[in-house]
Structure formats: structure tokens, C-alpha cells
What we know:
Distance between the termini: 60 Å
Number of helices: 8
CATH topology of the largest domain: Arc Repressor Mutant, subunit A
Largest sheet: 3 strands, antiparallel
Shape: elongated
Amino acid sequence: MSIRQALLALLEPGPMYGYQLRAEFEQRTGATWPLNVGQVYTTLARLERDALVEHVDGSGADDATDQSGQHGPAAAQVMYRITTSGRGEVSAWFTTPVPRTQPPRDELAIKLAIAVTLPGVDVASLIQQQRTATMTALQDYTRLKRSGRASRPDQAEDLAWSLVLDSLVFDAEAEIRWLDHCEARLRRAAVEGRLHTPARPTTPLTRPQPATHEEEVTS
């Protein structure tokens, strides 16, 4: 998730303080991905370094960081505005598809891929437990969609939160279908005798010890 471009885009309507940017981001996403305030100010500092944002004159930017580069209390008094270069980056972000050639690491896919190759792992139980957890999450997302501001999005921010919820619902539904698919494939592989896992070693592996001086002389 690109916090950098998201914060830039939020600055397009006008200058804001760091804490305002954090609040606006979480308002639009329903705090699905909470931002640490330190992360916001660190990102803003990098954006300013890259000339994509600048501080508003007289907003206290000179005192925002100490000599070690750490963000102190004065950072909250700094107002930032987007630059022309920053607007160009936002425009490029909105007009460029999100690349899918290098998908993000999926912990569940990695866990299942490792589990099917190791002896002693109850893969069927793993799948069932995950399916139950994902179905619970799906029910929670669906409940949120039917209540609160996401159920009748009268404001743009409410519609944004509703769209995020839609994404979470679709992701959960897809994960459940994938788990069903994995379960069926593993069952079929077991019936056909194609599922073989390496035997667990009976003795622990030990690192070879270097030869002693006497052994070298003898050899």
C-alpha cells in the first residue's frame, strides 16, 4: 500500500497538518489500515526532501526536527502543501495500473505451501481452522456494510469506506473459495497416491567439525 501517494493525493485540495492527513486517511479507509503518526511525519519529511511537498511559510517547520532528525512536538505545527511535481506524481499514480507482476507476500499461501511438504502437519485441520476464521471475518465485514455510515453513503468519505469494505468482502469470499479448492485438490491427490512428503529425519543434523591438527598429520 502506497502511503506516500495517498498522502500526496490528500494534499491536493489544500494544505494540511500531519495529524489532519492521518485523520483524513483513516476517515476514507475506515481505519482499516491505521497510520502511526510517526509514519505520517516521516513520509512527509521524505516528500519534502523530494520536492513533492513544501511547508507553508510561518507554520513552524524550522523547529519540526531536532539535530538528530527526530520529529518533535513542533512537527504537529507544520502545515504542508503539495508542489507542482507532487501533483504530477499523484496524476501518474491515478493513471497507472497497480502492477501484479510481483504480488505481495501472502502469509496463508506460504503457510499452506510449506505445510503440504512437511510430515506431521495436519493440513486438513489447518484449512478448516482458516476457513472458520475467514468466514467470521466475512460476517463482520458484511455486518459493517449493513449498518453505520457504509450502509447509506451520503458523503464521499462514506462511499470511500463502503468501497474499502467491498474489497475486504470480496477478498474474504475469494479466500474461502481458494481454501475449498485447496481442500479438494489435496483430497484428490491423496486418493490418487500422488501426495508424498519427505520423511522426518530420525536424528538431528549436525554441522561437520573441522579436522584436528593430529588428524591432518595422520592423513
